[in-house]
Amino acid sequence: MDATTITRPPLRRRSISRWLIAVLVMAAGAALTVPQAPTAAAEIRDVPEAEGYDYLAGEPAIWGSVAGTAGAYVDKACSGGYTIAGASGMFLTTAGMCSVGLAADGSIRGDAGYHADLFARRDADPLVLLKLRPGNDAFQIIVDPTTRAMPGDGRVVGWTRSADQPVGLLIGKMGIDTGWTEGRVLGTAPGRFGELLLCTDATASAGDVGGPVWRNDESGLRALGTVVGISDRGGACYRPIQETLYQYGAYLPTFGPGQGVPSWGTFAPGMVRYSGSVEVTYVGRVIDKGDDWRL
Fold this sequence. Notes:
By secondary structure, the chain is mainly beta. 3% of the residues lie in helices and 36% in strands. It has one helix and 17 strands. The strands form three sheets. The protein has a six-stranded antiparallel beta barrel with strand order 2-3-4-7-6-5. A six-stranded antiparallel beta barrel has the order 10-11-12-15-14-13. The chain has a two-stranded parallel sheet with strand order 1-8. A hairpin with a 5-residue loop joins β6 (113-121) and β7 (127-132).
């Protein structure tokens, strides 16, 4: 792993425009009898449309206006994963559990505002696809969203087959809660829909679901999978990238030679069952509407 080489993405500076909406209701005299809306924990901020947003794997995927009583006041924050491509175009990926209770418009935002919308959500798949809005772009570059650090130069040159991810493999993961953490593959565990995940001891928590899992070695920076669960020991559990590409009939655009659309994969020889339990129903974390996810 290349945990010592830290660079920053060669991208333009993003500007975040925000307009403060004053939400102050004063009552004088007689007590009001009309039921009042729930109060936000912080000021409600308007979220602008992102223009020219350059998405990197690991950045936040914030679901705007989540449903429910407090829908006008809170968003759900998860992490974004890799960008996959197929006959219908290119789509960002994140954990499907984060889309539970989202607003009808399916709007997604990152550091610079709204930049994507929900494209597809399968009933029995742990991931969802996000469609970038016109004018925005995505680069297969991995970044720690909490520090902007990158493994090597951040550029993904390929992906690793499920069969080449054995017990003991050193991996890295990015997420908006715990940032860049590293650990080793411990074994398999069932996911939300019966699919098998690879569990690790790389630290993770609720907001990290959807984030990229990777490895940087003599073969370069390669995609391994996407976080979709958290183990009982607080480790990231991920669905291998080969299975995601197979499920959607997609390929992974990278800075290296193309690898095409894969077949269904098998796990590495000697793979074992993870001895603990896995939580696969996390829905990210809640932030106040319009607030920065770091707050």
